[in-house]
Q: What sequence folds into this?
């Protein structure tokens, strides 16, 4: 009698590996749909990456329309269409608000908890899973998936067998490894036959040559234009915020372009950026602005006049880069000097020499090959009863809440699908 009861419990058990956004949502959704759920998290607490996301504020999702949302994932976005049709941004917002976490929508459609605390998001999941009797087991490192006749039968965890009829792999990517996302899931998926699209850092700062960025380190610019050149050819333009670092460039506009830069650098292509400090003005309008300023302030020195055009930290750097004497009177600036200044303001060059590692990358590019996963259920096409969700998959998008929504949605669908499969098999 005891053995039959135990076997019946195992046949209803869904094992979730990983306590990040995808894993927490998957565990709850599987439990809601009637499964017994065990959540194995190798860190001491789940949700560590959620806690640091959005600089501790947690950019949950974005209010963009479905077509625009999918476009942010590039050619792989179509994989998410069915998933998002079942659980999308409005559903996620409602999920949190029903559990006491109100949200606010900010610039660019970004959605945050109203109180600005990522910890509130983790708290919602902790309470939800507790109420659903999900068995959370921290400090549980999964070493192997146990497969029998092409069907997953459990996992080897901390040297012990944990049995179950479905496993949801939601271990995250390789970015921010200190939070537990150290790439374990890629190895586990590969061992059962899955192909792994080469992983690399994404939404990551870049390193630049020449020393100019280091001289401006700490300066934060808004509303600037950035042009990406690959092998000298214009590849992409972007607009937004930029931050100078000792090693190079960061900020949203750089992170948005970083995937193209990383991929180009990995194959040995030349990468450079042109920074436009005055994107609202074309060259003729900027020239007219300079002529007017220099005429009106002709008896003032250039280091004083340029403070009306540039942040103070950039003034002396600008004058040195354009070979204009700081003490020169504005009324004495030559046409050639004005041309050099105008050109520099519109196209400051930065040769890109490298990129930062996974420790500083917001997400991981690459991952489990999407063609090997059923987009209708998140079940593996290679191993029955195995589901994959979140950053482990070859899905990555721009900043703005898109990646976190994909994690929540794929986790939601994986949890629902795993429970439905077991219910169908066991009629529980």
A:
């Amino acid at each position: 009698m005891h053995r039959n009861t135990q076997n019946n419990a195992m046949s209803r058990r869904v094992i979730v590996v990983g306590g990040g956004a995808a894993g927490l949502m998957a565990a709850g959704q599987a439990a809601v749909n009637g499964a017994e759920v065990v959540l194995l998290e190798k860190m001491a607490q789940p949700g560590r990456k959620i806690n640091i996301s959005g600089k501790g504020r947690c950019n949950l999702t974005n209010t963009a329309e479905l077509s625009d949302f999918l476009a942010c994932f590039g050619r792989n976005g179509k994989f998410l269409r069915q998933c998002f049709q079942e659980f999308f941004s409005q559903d996620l917002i409602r999920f949190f608000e029903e559990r006491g976490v109100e949200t606010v929508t900010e610039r660019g459609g970004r959605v945050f908890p109203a109180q600005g605390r990522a910890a509130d998001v983790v708290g919602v999941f902790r309470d939800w899973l507790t109420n659903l009797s999900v068995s959370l087991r921290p400090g549980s490192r999964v070493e192997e998936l146990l497969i029998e006749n092409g069907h997953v039968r459990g996992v080897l965890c901390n040297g012990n067998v944990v049995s179950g009829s479905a496993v949801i792999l939601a271990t995250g990517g390789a970015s921010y490894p200190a939070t537990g996302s150290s790439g374990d899931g890629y190895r586990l998926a590969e061992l059962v036959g899955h192909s792994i699209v080469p992983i690399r850092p994404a939404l990551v700062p870049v390193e630049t040559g020449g020393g100019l960025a280091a001289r401006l380190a700490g300066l934060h610019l808004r509303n600037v234009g950035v042009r990406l050149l690959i092998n000298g050819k214009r590849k992409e333009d972007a607009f937004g915020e930029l931050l100078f670092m000792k090693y190079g460039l960061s900020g949203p506009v750089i992170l948005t372009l970083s995937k193209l830069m990383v991929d180009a650098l990995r194959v040995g292509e030349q990468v450079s950026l042109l920074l436009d400090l005055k994107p609202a003005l074309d060259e003729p309008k900027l020239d007219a602005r300079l002529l007017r300023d220099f005429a009106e302030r002709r008896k003032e020195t250039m280091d004083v006049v340029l403070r009306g055009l540039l942040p103070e930290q950039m003034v002396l750097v600008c004058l040195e880069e354009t070979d204009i004497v700081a003490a020169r009177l504005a009324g004495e600036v030559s046409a050639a000097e004005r041309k050099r200044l105008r050109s520099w303001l519109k196209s400051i060059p930065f040769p890109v020499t490298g990129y930062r590692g996974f420790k500083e990358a917001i997400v991981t590019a690459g991952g489990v090959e999407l063609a090997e996963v059923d987009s209708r259920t998140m079940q593996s096409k290679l191993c029955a009863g195995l589901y994959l969700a979140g950053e482990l998959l070859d899905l990555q998008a721009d900043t703005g809440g898109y990646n976190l929504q994909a994690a929540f949605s794929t986790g939601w669908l994986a949890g629902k699908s795993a429970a439905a499969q077991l219910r169908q098999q066991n009629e529980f």
